Amino acid sequence: MLVWFCIHNGTVRGWSRQNQQEIIALEVSPDQKKIEEIRQEFLKWPGIFDIKIEALAGTFAPGDDLLFLVVAGDIRENVKAVLAGLLDRVKAGPIKKREIIIVGAPPGGWPSC
Question: With CB atoms 3.0 to 4.6 Å apart as the test, which of 11, 88, 103, 107 could cross-link to 20 if both were Cys?
Answer without folding.
Answer: 107
